[in-house]
Amino acid sequence: MVDEEKRKDILERLKKGVVEFDEDMVREAAQEALDVGMDALDAIMNGLVAGMEEVGELFDKGEYFVPEVLMCADALYAGLDILKPHVKKEDIKVSGQVVIGVVEGDVHDIGKNLVKMMFEVAGFEVIDLGKDVPLEKFVEESLNTKADIVALSAMMTTTMLGMPKVIEMIREKNPNAKILIGGAPVSKESAEKWGADGWAPDATNAVKEAINMVKGLKKEVMGEE
Question: What domain range is 75 assigned to?
Answer without folding.
Answer: 4-88
